[in-house]
Specification:
The complex is a heterodimer. Chain A is mostly beta strands. Helices cover 0% and strands 51% of the residues of chain A. Chain A has no helices and 12 strands. In chain A, strands 2, 5, 6, 10, 11 and 12 form a 6-stranded mixed sheet that branches. By secondary structure, chain B is mainly beta. In chain B, 0% of the residues lie in helices and 49% in strands. The chains are: A mainly beta, B mainly beta.
Amino acid sequence: AQTVTQSQPEMSVQEAETVTLSCTYDTSESDYYLFWYKQPPSRQMILVIRQEAYKQQNATENRFSVNFQKAAKSFSLKISDSQLGDAAMYFCAYRSPNFGNEKLTFGTGTRLTIIP
Amino acid sequence: SAVISQKPSRDICQRGTSLTIQCQVDSQVTMMFWYRQQPGQSLTLIATANQGSEATYESGFVIDKFPISRPNLTFSTLTVSNMSPEDSSIYLCSVEPMLITNYGYTFGSGTRLTVV
């Protein structure tokens, strides 16, 4: 079974600075999907960014980018120019390519605090 | 991507009673997923609900405790039965995107359940 590990329970960053959240995963599959979700206090799960394992190019979405290292099974999220609205829980998630196993497996989360 | 309406948003229930949570999707989807998020924890999959077939439960979750209904391609319910304080959690439904290569999974806004 796949597992997802987020080793940083909490992180903090000064407003306008850059922060990187770590995520590693364990899988024997060669093609899969990875996601970062944000959960603010409203508890709504918001997709931040997604990556297909067959793509070598790292995904980017405005101030958010990933460093996808397939061989190392690492999928870190970089937030540039941090804003107060970025404060939330961030979850890394894995999705198998296999039919019948379309569920998301989540890491334990990282709570990000933005310091004004 | 799909939009999900989840009800109720919160409830306080007496132990021994049951609560039914509803999720309505604005488009037809094949799979719906039900997650539990215990206080301060990550999301754990309870079951996957396909229209026209019985739900598939994850290890540690049973149908008698969490019966699921999936009468059509846009609607599902999760019932938390014979509740105890340990069932106090946030419950979320989710759907897989029609095109996994283009979108992420969408989540309902969650139901915060407190059992007293």
